[in-house]
Design brief:
CATH topology of the largest domain: Rossmann fold
Radius of gyration: 16 Å
Protein name: tryptophan--tRNA ligase
EC number: 6.1.1.2
Distance between the termini: 27 Å
Organism: Erythrocercus mccallii
Strand content: 5-15%
GO molecular function: ATP binding; tryptophan-tRNA ligase activity
Structural class: mainly alpha
InterPro entries: aa-tRNA-synth_Ic (IPR002305), Rossmann-like_a/b/a_fold (IPR014729), Trp-tRNA-ligase (IPR002306), Trp-tRNA_synthetase (IPR050203)
Shape: globular
Number of helices: 6
Length: 135
């Protein structure tokens, strides 16, 4: 949600890819792709954003903390980032999502959005469940 220099962003993408591969992810057994090249992520985020109310987003603790660190301004991208996360999860009809404690509320938002969408348009998205690690 923070602007990056294009060269730094490109290097970050390469570094992250290298780290994923170094962790043992086998690209012959799984899909490895750059999310920003899949327009459906942003398209679904727009649709889901039209179903999500602003007061709900304003109550998320991550918004409050990051906004405070940005001199009480905050950006629309920061505010709506949890909706993009929901789109990332729901786009692939995920049923289970590994999350840390700090992301449980964002997953609950994804669950609520899925339920709201399904109620309005018919059963389409599974309601994803959290996989919490003890680590």
């Amino acid at each position: 949600t923070m602007p990056k220099e294009p060269a730094v962003l490109r290097q970050n993408i390469l570094d992250t890819t290298a780290a994923i591969l170094a962790c043992g992810i086998d690209p012959k057994r799984c899909f490895l792709f750059r999310q920003s090249l899949v327009p459906e992520h942003a398209e679904l985020a727009w649709i889901l954003g039209c179903l999500t109310n602003v007061p709900r987003l304003l109550r998320l603790p991550q918004w409050k903390m990051k906004r405070a660190s940005q001199n009480s301004e905050g950006t629309v991208g920061l505010l709506t980032y949890p909706v993009l996360q929901a789109a990332d999860i729901l786009l692939y009809k995920s049923t289970h999502v590994p999350v840390g404690e700090d992301q449980v509320l964002h997953l609950e938002l994804a669950q609520d959005i899925a339920q709201h969408f399904n109620k309005k348009y018919g059963e389409f998205f599974p309601v994803p469940k959290a996989i919490l690690s003890e680590l």
